[in-house]
Amino acid sequence: MALLGAHCGANSSSLRNLATKRSAPQLCRAAPAPTVPNETALPAGGPGAKYAAGQCTKVPVKNIRNFSIIAHIDHGKSTLADQLLLKTNTVAERDMVEQFMDSNDIERERGITIKLNSARMRYTDSQGELYALNLIDTPGHVDFAYEVSRSLAACEGALLVVDASQGVEAQTLANVWLALENDLEVIPVLNKIDLPGADPDRVISEIEDIIGLDCTDILKVSAKVGLGIDDVLEAIVKRVPPPKNTVDKPLRALIYDSYYDAYRGVICQFRVVDGSVSRGDRILMMNTGKEHIVDEIGVLAPNKVTVDTLYCGEVGYMAAQIKSVKDARVGDTITLSKNQAQEPLPGYVEVQPMVYCGLFPTDSNQYQDLRVALDKLQLNDAALRFEPEISTAMGFGFRCGFLGLLHMEIVQERLEREYNLQLITTAPTVIYKCVTADGQELMINSPADLPEPQKRRSMAEPYVRLEMVTPTDYVGNLIELATSRRGEYQEMRYLTENRTTLVFDIPLAEVVTDYFDVLKSRSKGYASMEYQMIGFRENDLVKLEIKINGEPADALSVITHRDNSYKLGKQLVSKLKELIPRQMFKVPIQACIGVKVIASEQIAPYRKDVTAKCYGGDISRKKKLLSKQAEGKKRMKALGRVEVPQEAFMAVLNLDND
Questions:
Q1: Where would I find the Tr-type G domain in this sequence (predicted)?
Q2: What pLDDT digit, counting tens, does each position of 422-434 carry?
Q3: Sign (positive/negative) of CA torsion 316, 320, 324, 329?
């Protein structure tokens, strides 16, 4: 949000006229409008098969429009995409399903976009001129912010969809700034105007005041009933600028998505920025240095339709017998091996996991199945990292790295659904930076890997810039929440009379547990949040170790701030006392920092009344029986093993932080 003032000031007056100021490129000389051969048309009966030949008709560069749809979760992005596909006859009505672009069942169930997609649409405007509209979808969650940025880099324009009843939310702002950083023409769209709770005037005022967009020509639609879709298509054609005509330059193409196909290897989805690429070309990935020969090239309409060549400005896919998505990373630049570009397209970074957790099979016989399943998932997801891990409590498993909490939940759900695995997941942790006494810098993703205190010089943890957009009534509650999680207050801005933005710098470790749930609870569901990494900061961090019956439980150990350690330790041992079942012997549960015990609880044993048969006689007889029982309990404790249920390993998540 540091960009808020700069973007509003620089763009509010000129956004509306951005398209008219850009120079329109000339026709692409190398593309004399060939059509797709009959043999490459879609199979009969497939979605969009009837329109395949028309969808792939070549159009001049000035008639290509590459755009994306950006919105906060549940503001109607996928529904609007469905209507655009229907209106342009890209998908026949009989083949249409809700959230057509969301191909995964989990996406449809949760109502969010996890894996982006794209579709080429053929549209004839009111003047009778043919246009090729390339819709490049974007994921809808902060975990996938890098993929969003690469998708937007492949576009010239974006539809900003805002719910007419909910108004501007945190993710709306974050996505707008990302679009403006990529110099996109932003077209505001007011969705759900047919709802009884819609307040278009208030929301238009919010968009103008908060974002700085001129809403004189705002599009008012209802994607659910198909109202105003024609106006959206006309606005895309008239207001989104065409790509630049750079067909004479060496090939540069931006990979904005890739996935693994069991028969053809990795399929790359890309946007040709400069030059052209054809079937049979030898290509070079400029950041990974890998070379491949293009076997197949085509466009998504929305099913695959092969073509011979793709030119500057066009969006398509390619198969080149690439073995792993690691060799075709999102954001990489494709060029030709013989006629190489001088420099790659800007913005490429190698995505690093920020949240780690342990995945263990409930049945130890499924360990190899879990390894195979993770290998297969990693073919599709280059951001997923894993390595073997052994836990005294849970046996053999894997330490896995994820982009964020949602990414972690999706991977776990896919493993359980698609590979029939029963998994135990440990509480998530973030990555820490540790400097040892001899000056070596270590990246720590598990408390078990942390060096002893005497071997550490300093510890640093990742911080994020957290922005919360909330009705003014809940400002006090959310400030209290952020400060209780070690948040450092930065600023507060009144967006409108009734809406406020709160900005805090806060440790990522405090956000990845239950922060979002508590935020929604304290604001009665009205507040929204967005965060971005700002780097590492040194803090007084300690390893809080949990011992059950004297044995360290590595999976329950956490790295926390020293000031929070006593409270956290007390809460954790109390929770474990409730969740771990009673044994035949006494079970001590201890929270320790080094050798110092800071909190402890005991689980009482089951106990037989051995003195029940003593109806009289000397007291020494009872003492003898009790002594014999105590010896047996002691022997059991030495040999016994405490079975810890899965709920206990998630206890860190469920602690009452209020």
A1: 62-244
A2: 888 777 788 899 9
A3: negative
